[in-house]
Amino acid sequence: MESNLNSLETRFGRLTDIVIDSIPGIIGGIVLLVIGKYVIALVNRLLHKRFEKRNVDPSIRTFISSIIKIVMWVMLLLTVASQIGIQTTSFIAALSAFGLAVGMALQGSLSNFAGGVLILMFRPFEVGDYISSANGTSGTVERIDILYSTLIGDDGVRIFSPNGPLANSVIKNYTKIVQRMFEYTVSISYDKNVKDAKDIILRVLRSNETVLTAPEPTVFVKELGNNSIILTVRAWTKREHYWAARNSMQEKIMLELERNEISVAPNPTQISIVPNANDQGSPVKVDV
Hints:
Mechanosensitive ion channel protein MscS, 288 residues, cell membrane, three-stranded antiparallel beta sheet
């Protein structure tokens, strides 16, 4: 019994000595962590001021700042671990193995990182540009980060698009162009004069200040449908006037045609009648 008590006292004494010996290192580690956190924030602020002074592109600012911040935090944590008494050599080896495992598990994220680098290198778009991608995503670019780009959609919704698929898809950048074309179709009845309809539409387009005269607006017969003549209307406007011109012109054209007693015919609805499996023959299509 006495030997067990002596053994327990010895172990407790060793533990106490370890704790006492570790206190300076722990305190030093905490001090380093606090100072390091302040230094990282200070470097980040100085970096942003430097970027603003040199007028660096906002997308590059965000990307570089994120990478530098991550590197500084890793260095700080390794320094704190060394100060506390943790063997950083084995820690780095374990961290490398962990990083390899995480890298294999997060191949998609690595692809997004590479996509972010490609976007910043070739710059198909920048912060403030209005873009649309092949997957249907569209909006104004708000941020370009390491893994994701943030867009603001037409309805104000914030969209987070992975950089990997975004860099590898077809991207339409509408901000890089000076003017845009808007197009829609107008259907008129066969008993109406096509030339009169075209003249009315062109007159409406030319009377609007937002519609450009070069290239000239055009109206042509696109198709002779079963129930109506389908006209295609094309006109050009400045990029910043696109949505307003496109939406207002469609309504004005319809009202002007109706005022001249040229009714806009509804587009035919096609219904396919598919035979049963036991029946022979092809589907029958009927325009309504």
